[in-house]
Design brief:
Blueprint: E1 7-11, E2 14-20, E3 27-31, H1 37-55, H2 60-63, H3 67-80, H4 85-102, H5 112-120, H6 141-160, H7 189-201, H8 211-224, H9 228-232, E4 239-240, E5 247-250, E6 261-264, H10 267-278, H11 295-305, E7 311-312, E8 315-316, H12 321-332, H13 337-344, H14 349-354, H15 360-368, H16 373-380
Antiparallel strand pairs: 1-2, 2-3, 4-5, 5-6, 7-8
Helix pairs in contact: 3-4, 4-5, 4-6, 5-6, 7-8, 7-11, 8-12, 12-13
């Protein structure tokens, strides 16, 4: 790249400094502060030195590009890195929303204050695309932290890819989550039996799923502990139903922990799945479009029809609460802690414990099994 040269020209009786932009190759002009020849020469040399220093700045070409173009290249980077489609479909729109709310156009516009203020004022998106945001509630603490994490990941990539010299949001911290937005509680085996019986007899569709399909969905969640998004990605290839130990496989790109897991299946679940899985074409999901359906709405209406409460003591029993039931039932089988953690597919046993529930009767039964020291003392006497 040729060195930038600054010249002097006269336009409409005024002196101007001019040069050719090294990036766009367009001619640029700057009016001189006065008409004194000595001062003009000093200004010309100063500007030429500044432009030459700027020309050698390795980050110059990236600073002149809009943030939207950087986001597009970041998306291409995620795809090339093998990041799952579901994560990309979530991360990129959220990243674009932060940029729009913060009023950012170039990388130089990014500041920690702007990002923190934009995220802190975000509201839940309306269900309809043309809905008004004014009446919507603020995002939960967990959701705001998720937005912060996405933007921090983007900025770290900018630094790694030599687009920025330093991370502009290095000090952006997560909020301390005081309380879980939707505390959940389990469904007992008796309640779950009543739920699936009601769903199976139902003759109406909820979120596009018939009663039989919802019954199959609930059964699969109850006996595997899979999350809704993981169930949504299951295809014929995910199942091995004809082998000695039938299994379901969650690919790393589809799992929350980004780890490939192979789980054994309950015999009753195998019998239920075999007919419908056999009818699937290659690549066809077991539950089409489930990722975008409201799982809480399905189970809430089915619970209502079954005469069971959706909320108990401020805790909800949505589709994810069925995963709580799965983990709690594993403990009741007497399985050791490591086995329960692995079947729950948690990296940390402490998370598994959070998903575990016990009733007052179970706690009382455990207390009754403690040795009676006083009666033992009487026998010794």
């Amino acid at each position: 790249m040729d060195s930038v040269k600054v010249g002097v020209t006269q336009r409409k009786g005024r002196s101007y400094l001019w040069w050719r932009d090294p990036i766009t190759r367009n001619v640029r002009y700057k009016v001189c502060k006065n008409e004194n020849k000595t001062d003009i020469e000093i200004q010309r040399r100063q500007l030429e030195r500044q432009l030459q220093d700027r020309q050698h700045d390795q980050f110059l070409i990236h600073r002149t590009k809009t943030i939207s173009s950087h986001i597009a290249e970041y998306k291409a980077h995620l795809i090339a890195s093998g990041v799952g489609d579901a994560r990309i479909r979530t991360a990129i729109p959220q990243l674009e929303r932060i940029v729009e709310d913060a009023g950012l156009r170039f990388l130089s516009d990014i500041t920690e204050t702007k990002i923190a203020s934009a995220i802190a004022s975000m509201r839940c998106l309306p269900h309809r695309k043309d809905g008004n945001m004014d009446g919507q509630t603020l995002l939960s603490q967990r959701s705001r932290n998720h937005y912060r994490q996405i933007f921090r990941s983007f900025c770290r990539w900018l630094v790694r890819d030599r687009r920025l010299p330093v991370d502009p949001v290095l000090g952006l911290q997560n909020e301390k989550v005081v309380q879980e937005r939707h505390a959940r509680t389990e469904l007992t085996s008796k309640e779950f039996g009543k739920l699936i019986e009601t769903a199976q007899k139902s003759d109406r569709k909820i979120e596009g799923l018939s009663g039989e399909e919802r019954c199959r969905l609930y059964h699969l969640a109850f006996l595997t502990g899979l999350r809704k998004k993981e169930i949504a990605m299951l295809t014929k290839r995910s199942f091995a139903l004809t082998v000695k130990t039938p299994t379901v496989t969650i690919e790393a790109s589809e799992a929350k922990a980004k780890r490939r897991d192979v789980l054994p299946l309950h015999p009753a679940l195998v019998e239920m799945l075999r007919p419908c899985v056999g009818k699937l074409h290659n690549g066809e999901p077991l539950f089409p479009g489930l990722a975008h359906k409201k799982g809480w709405k399905m189970i809430k209406l089915d619970l209502k029809d079954a005469g069971l409460p959706y909320e108990v003591d401020g805790k909800f029993r949505d589709l994810h609460a069925v995963r709580h039931s799965f983990i709690s039932n594993l403990w009741r089988t007497g399985a050791n802690a490591e086995l329960v953690r692995r079947l729950a597919r948690h990296a940390d046993l402490r998370m598994t414990v959070k998903y575990s529930h016990s009733s007052l009767d179970e706690q009382a039964a455990a207390i009754e099994k403690l040795p009676n020291v006083s009666s033992q003392q009487e026998e010794d006497d």
